[in-house]
Amino acid sequence: MKALDQFAIAGRSALVTGAASGIGLAYAETMAEAGASVTLTDIDATGLEREAARLAGEGYAVRTAVLDVTDRAGCDAAVAGHVAAYGGLDICFANAGLGEGPGFVAPDGSRVEDGQVDTYDPALWDRSIAINLTGSYNTMRAAARAMKAGGASGGRGGGSIIATASNAGLILEPIVPMPYHPAKAGVLHLVRALALELARFRIRVNAIAPGPFVTNIGGGWAKQDPAVKQAFDATIPLGAMAETYQMKPLALYLASDASSFMTGSTLLIDGGVALGPPR
Ligand code: NAD
Fold first, then answer.
1. Domain presence at residue 182
2. For residue 37, which of 5, 13, 41, 242 is within the disulfide window of CB 3.0 to 4.6 Å?
3. Tell me, what CATH number does 72's domain have?
C-alpha cells in the first residue's frame, strides 16, 4: 500500500474535545480537511458555534456539542450523539485541558510567592486533575465504549484515540503550574494502560506531547505580549513557539491508518525543548 493512501480518513468520523480553540481546533480542522465528519465539543459554547459555523461555511461536515469534560455523563452523551449522527465513532481526540496558576518561578527566574507547594491554591490542584486527567479519562472511556460497540455490531470496528498530554508530562518546567506535571504524566500512563487493554479490539491509543504552541492556554499570554513571547522563543532550540497548523500532520498521522502499527506511544512535538536550552 502506498504511503499517502494510508493517511486517508474520508468517510470516517471524529470527535474532538476542547475544539473551540488552539490545538483542539487544529485537530478538528485537520479531520474536516481530510474528509471526516467531525463533532466539535467544548465548554465554551460561543467559541464552539463560531468555529463550527466557519467550518460549515467552508463546506465541511461538522456538528457541535457543548461539553465540560469533567461531566462524565456529559461525555457519554456527547459520544452517543456523535454515533447517532454519524453512525459510529472512528477517531477521538481527548484534548481539553488547561494550565492555570503560577509555576514556582517566573519566566525571569524570580521566585513566585504563591507558586510554591505550600502556598499554591489547592483548588487549582483539584481543577487541574479534574480537567486534565479525569477529563481525559472520561472522554477516552466514552470513546472506547462506542468503538467497541461499533465493532460488536458488525461495523468496521477498531478506532484511534489520541490524548493531548504535554512535554510537561515528561520533563519539569518550573514556570508551569505544579499540578499540570502529574496531571499530564498521568495522561501518558493512562494512554499506555488503555492501549494495552484495547489492542485486541483494534482500538489504538496514543498521546501527543506538545511543547510550547501559541494558543489561548494560560489566558493566551503568547498572543497578547510579543515581548514575553520573544523571550520565551529564545529558550526553544528551534527558535520559536509553534503555530497550531504545525500540529496538523501529526494529528492526521495518528488518526489514520498511517500509524496502524502504533499504540501506547507518546509523540513529542516540542521544538527541541526536552533537549535543553539552545546553545
Ligand atoms: P486553548 O486554551 O487554546 O484551548 C483549550 C480549549 O479547551 C478551550 O477551547 C477551552 O474552552 C477548552 N476547555 C477548557 N476546559 C474545558 C473543559 N472542562 N471541558 C471542555 N473543554 C474545556 O489551549 P491549547 O493550548 O489549545 O490546549 C489544548 C491542549 O493542549 C490542552 O490539553 C493543553 O494542556 C495541551 N497543551 C498545550 C500546550 C501549548 O503550549 N499550547 C503545550 C502542551 C500541552
1. yes
2. 13
3. 3.40.50.720
Distance CA 133, CA 96 (A): 10
The phi, psi pair for 151, rounded to 5°, reads: -70, -45
User: For residue 275, is it within any domain?
Assistant: no
Domain count, the chain: 1
The answer to whether the CB of 217 is under 6 A from ligand 1 is yes
278 in a structural domain: no
Instruction: Name the residue range of residue 160's domain.
Output: 4-268
- 29: cell is 480542522
- Bridge partners (DSSP) of residue 13 are 37
Report the distance separating Cα 247 and Cα 224, nearest Å: 21
Q: Strand, coil or helix: what is 39? A: strand
22 lines ligand 1 (CB under 6 A): yes
State the pTM of this model: 0.98
Give a yes or no: residue 168 inside a domain.
yes
In the sheet with 62-66, reading across from the earlier edge strand, the strands are 62-66, 37-42, 13-16, 91-94, 159-164, 203-210, 266-269
pLDDT digits 0-9 by tens, 52-84: 999 999 999 999 999 999 999 999 999 999 999
